[in-house]
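User: What would this chain look like folded?
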Amino acid sequence: MLEIGCAYGFFLDEARRAGFEVSGIEPAEAAAAHAGDLGLNVVCGLLSEATLNSFGTLDVIVLLDVIEHLPDPQEALALFADHLRPDGIIVLTTGDFGSLAARSTGAHWRLMTPPQHLWFFNRDSIASLAHSVGLRVESSDRPWKFVPFSLIAFQLGRMLGRKIAAGPTGNRFAIPVNLFDAMRVVLSKAPPSPDRSVP
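Assistant: Here's the prediction, encoded as structure tokens.
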């Protein structure tokens, strides 16, 4: 399993405990160093053909809230498809621009944060993007997340156009939240088109 943008390595650490052989790519030096301190194989740098080649072919590629940050998502997915085993999968999460929350809040949507977020997707556009590089959507859902109070306060303030300060304990406590405006998508390689010239 390879995680793109693995940050401090918390997800990879959990996946390793579950029995996966894991690696990661992370551009932030401090985060990559922390992941290395956990004993994880994390390369500090940007996504590239050369970096992916060092990992060989992969069973699972994970992008958790990453694809919206990439300069060219289509190029990245094509690269991942080239390094994915025939029965492998790509798991990604990103905001759902077609959701009720996104449409009703518009420019104040919690994930409308350019220039950090360069792209905005809905279920149809993700499926179209995947299809353009020979991938297909295997499943799509809108998962629940445990969210710290500090982040909830920040996002509420942003949507209301004001700053809401969270107390020092705001990061210690989290509650399950689902605004149904973020999607988890599993992609796999589409089967090759049948060659009609062969009898």
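The longest helix spans residues 149-160. If you want, I can go into more detail on any region.
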